[in-house]
Structures are given as structure tokens and as C-alpha cells.
Amino acid sequence: MLSIKNLHVKLEEEDKQILKGVDLQINAGEVHAIMGPNGSGKSTLSYVLSGKDGYEVTQGEAALEGADLLEMEPEERAAAGLFLAFQYPVEIPGVGNMTFLRTAVNAQRKARGEAEMSASDFLKAVRARAKELKIDAEMLKRPVNVGFSGGEKKRNEIMQMAMLEPKMCILDETDSGLDVDAMKLVAEGVNALRSEGRGFLVITHYQRLLDHIKPDVVHIMADGRIVKTGGPELALEVENNGYGDILAEVA
Amino acid sequence: MAEPAANISVLDGRLSRLERPTGGWSDAARADALSRLRATGLPDRRDEYWKYTRPDTLTQADPVPAALFDNDEGPIFGDMARIQIVFVDGVFDADASDDLVGEGLIIERLAETQADIHWARDLYGKLEASGQSPVARPLAALNTAFAPDGVLIHVTGKVSKPVSLQYHHRSETSDAMLHHVIRLDEGAELTVLENGPAAARFNKVMEVDVADGAVFHHVRAQGRDHERRAATHIFARLGTESTFKSFTLTANGVMTRNECVIELTGNDAIAHVAGACVGDGDFHHDDTVFITHDAVGCESRQVFKKVLRNGATGVFQGKILVKKDAQKTDGYQISQSLLLDDDSQFLAKPELEIYADDVACSHGSTSGAIDEDALFYLRSRGVPEASATDLLTLAFLAEAVDEIENETLREEINERLAAWLERHRG
Ligand SMILES: Nc1ncnc2c1ncn2[C@@H]1O[C@H](COP(=O)(O)OP(=O)(O)O)[C@@H](O)[C@H]1O
Ligand SMILES: [Mg+2]
Q: Which ranges does the record mark as transmembrane (chain A) (predicted)?
């Protein structure tokens, strides 16, 4: 599904290398987790994969189902099936949440040569997703993320993901700032989407999200590299001992 | 202060092309306006009030010719039931116009009311004259003195059908001047729509007297002609608990100066003035607003948004003057520009002058580019860059467009803006 090889990334404006050779292979149906200290490059990886400006790939490659992601515009990556749930979802005053969602759904369909979703089908689908995530009608009417609490923003990300039905979902610290109930909702939302045809990359600091979204593989990232890969037990190790031991061991 | 000689000769040049209508009830007002105009002269580049906008092409003897524009869009407001009044290059077109009758209002033409007594005598040039202080507005005085035509609307009831003034531009060298007077009696209601480029050069004054409890709505679209020039003035006086709301859409136009002068003279009156303008290239648009709070508990809002690209220029001069006894004034003013490239510019002079102590006034002016984070967010969800930019641009304009209360009109304005953005992409 997602194949990253020897990815090196620096900031466009500065001579600062952030990713220093990332290798990652996620197959359809798998859930991978990335954990790692602050500043290790996790968000950068998610941004580079989704096409944000300001980064320069100096070496390596990234492909989604064999197609070179790095050659595509952000909207093309989305239409190809990549989705990023942002660590910090962006507020867009003046653009209604519904207008935004519908524009996005139909833009992706158009890009893939599919028919647009009818207004009534769209409404039905949004209402169902919103209900599952306990997003009330009032929130749907408001401008995108404006006046949303931290937890509401994160649930809104998951709702977008559910509506867009991507193939490869990247969740960047979707659990941070959530209370236990909100985290359960988010995890249920993600689990509902787990399927054989879909891959997940879950970036998190905490084991607790992984109690709800059970990963197949756990990676530890430090200083722009994946320094250790293992099973779910690796997350428990981090939870109990912090990163110190692991980093010392690989140093 | 003596007027510089050059300025006088500009005035003489301008006057040499005009003929003052004489006889009838407007005579005294016209004579008065002319003598006021002679005292001030026409604005020139040294005039502080014209610091950001060069008045030359608006004041010179002859208009700069303006190519006719083939507008392939259907006429705006075309699907609404309305009373249509059509002017072609400033000349009334009886065939294209509806009968000037309607329930709850009396409509007449300025050119056709010659008697010595007329209700408009108490207003024509009066609100304009009052709006000349503390800042002179010579182009409006010129208009009062010389406007050959316009409409006089006396509203006695709640009128449901809007009066729609349509201004066609069919001659490349037309120089049009119209002067409208609208009087709303106590509790009366009227919506006035205006649309079209009007002429190569257009000088228009609209005086609106809104009596106690009356409601006046105004929505205007200034056409799509690129080369047309316009200097327009609205002078409004608001009585107790009356409402005045005006919105202007300006898309294209090499030179536009829209002045709006409002006096809140009755308690608890409401005045909203808003504008959305979009300009690409050879485009200069100036909104100059002056709102005087002279009564207790009044609310005023100014919401102006400009989208500029390829060297377009936007100007905003807006003032809220709160007089000593205008307690509990609620004044809001925002002027913002969205610059779609580095070549365009926005010049703003927001002013507050407050003499009362119990008031809430706020104002803000900003100039910025498209929010890159928002753009990326939209694109990451699959929205192509061009439509994402359009969506954010419409969102930027929304605060101004949302000032239009009527949903049909609001949507029509939004559609025009969306279509314009689609035609003027990167
Ligand atoms: N646009 C940027 N400008 C400056 N520094 C950046 C930028 N993006 C990332 N960085 C730096 O790169 C490093 C990795 O950041 P990030 O990817 O956000 O880490 P993580 O998500 O693992 O906490 C940090 O040192 C951060 O300050
Ligand atoms: Mg991060």
C-alpha cells in the first residue's frame, strides 16, 4: 500500500535536515504505529507524504500502490487515496463544514472519473457518520473547525476520513488532547474503517490509543529515522520505560 | 483660502460641457450647488480626501472613452418581480422601462417635474449640501447643479416589489449624470436595486430620507465593463428606529469612487454599508464612507472586502463620527483586502472621532494573502488548488455579502462573485 524508501527531507528555507533516511512498508489491511519523542520528525513525515510546501526531498522515494507520491499535487494524492488527519486541524472561517465536505468528496470523485454524490445521498452519509462520532448538527453547520474544541476538531478529522473513504490513512496524534470518552469515539471511528483494502499509520505518543486501535507493527522514530520496529509490545515498553532505554540501545 | 488657478480652470473646463436645467422647483437647489461648487472647485491631486485616488479622469472636461463590454451573463436580479427603470447612457428609456407605478409609492422623473412646488424640493440637494461638511464633495455638488434626470420616489407604504434601476452603457463616449431622491415616510419600506455600468463616465447622487421606523434596502452591482469610470454618492438621513442597509458589488471598472454619507439623526437607528469588490489588472476602486452618529443608541456597520490581483488598487476611507450626545453608539467598521499577488495594493484610512463617552466602537483594517495552511488543508482533502483558492476567496468576501438580508439577492451576488473568480484564475 504505502512504500517509503530511504526518505531524506530538509526544510526548503533552511539547511536543516529533518528526515534522515526513513524506510517504511505498510501493506493493505495493516495498522502501523509510529511513536517517538517530540521533534523526531513524525509530523514532517506525514506532511511530506501529503504534499505540504516548505519541505524538500533530497533523497529517497514514497509510493502509494506503486504510484510516485512525491510527483503529485496534494489534491492528486488525496484522490489517489491518501488521507492525513492533522495534528492541528486548520480553522477556515467563512467556509461551512458541509460545503467543505461536499466539495472535497465530489472533487475526489471527479478526479477519479466517478459520478458526483447526490445531495441527498451525501446528506444521509454525513448524518450517519456524524451520529457515530457524536458530532451534532450545529457543528456541521459551522465554518470548518471554527469554534470547535480540541476534541471536536479531532472527531471532525475522523468524520472527514469516514466520508472520503481513503485507502491509506495517516493519523497524526489524533489522540492528543482527547479525554477518555472522546478517544474511544475516535478509536471506534477508526476501527470501523479497518478493512483488508486499507492501511493505517497511527502517530501517537501514548500506548492508551493503541489499547483501542490495535496495531500490527510499532515503529520508534528518533532524530529523523525509524530506529526500532517491533510488535505491539514495543508500545508497552515505551509506556513503561519511556524512550530512554530504546534510544540508548540503538545509539 | 484662494483656489489654485489650475483648479479653477479644471472646473471651467468641466462646466463648459454642461448645461444647467432651469425652471421649476429644483432651480434654487441647483443654483446653490453651483455656487458651493465654485467656492470649493473640483478635487485635484493635492486634495487630502483624494490622496489615494486620482480625480483627474472624473473631473476633466470630457470622459475618457470606454470600450463597450460584451457581457455574456444574464442581467443580474433578472428573475425577481420588480419595477424596472432603464437608463441608457444616462438617458431614460421609456420602452424598456415598466410603467412608473406601484402600490405604496409614487415614482416620478426629475426631468419631468417642472412645477414650482414638489415634495422633493425639501430634499433635493439638501442632504447633499449637509454632507459637504466637514469634508467637501464637489462632484456631488456638480451633480446637484447639473443632473438632467433621475428618479424621485416617495414611499408611503411597505413596498414588496423592489425598484430596479438599470444603467446600460451603449456609447463609448457617454458622460452620464443622474440624481435620485428617495423619501420613505414613517414606517415605509423599500428595496432599491441598481445595476449596470451606466456610461463611459457616470456621476450619480442618491439622496435617501428614511423617516422614523422606515426601512430602506439597497443592493447594487456596478456592471462588468472594464473601462467605465464612476463617481457615486449616497447621502442618507435616518430617523428614529429606522433602518438603512446598502450593499455594493463592484467587479471590474478602471475607476470607481463610491462615497456614502450617512447621518443618524433619530435614536436607535441602524445603518449598514457594505461592499465586495473584485479587481484584476487595470482596476482602481475607492470606498469612502462617512457616518455621523447624532442620536442616542444608534448602530452603524461598515464592512468592506476587496479582492485584488495583477496590480489592482483598492482604497478605503471610512470614518465614524460620534457627536457629543450620541451615547450608547455601537459603531463597527472593518475593511480588508485579499491580495492575490504582490503587485496589487490596498490603501486604507480608517478613522474614529468620538465625543460621547458611553460608546462601543471598533474598527480594523487588514491586508493579506490567501492563508497557506487553509489552502493546504483543502487540497489535502482533494480540492484542486484553483477551486480551493476560490472557496477561500468567497469565504473572505462572505462577511460583506452576508450583510445582504434578502437570501435570493445574496445568492445571486455570490454566484456572480464565484463566476468572476472562475474567470480570473491565476
Ligand atoms: N516548517 C518548519 N520550520 C521549521 N522547523 C520545522 C518545520 N517543520 C518541522 N520543523 C522541525 O523539524 C523537527 C521535527 O518536527 P516534527 O516533524 O513536527 O516532529 P514531531 O511531529 O515528531 O514532534 C523539529 O525540530 C521541528 O522544529
Ligand atoms: Mg508532531
A: none
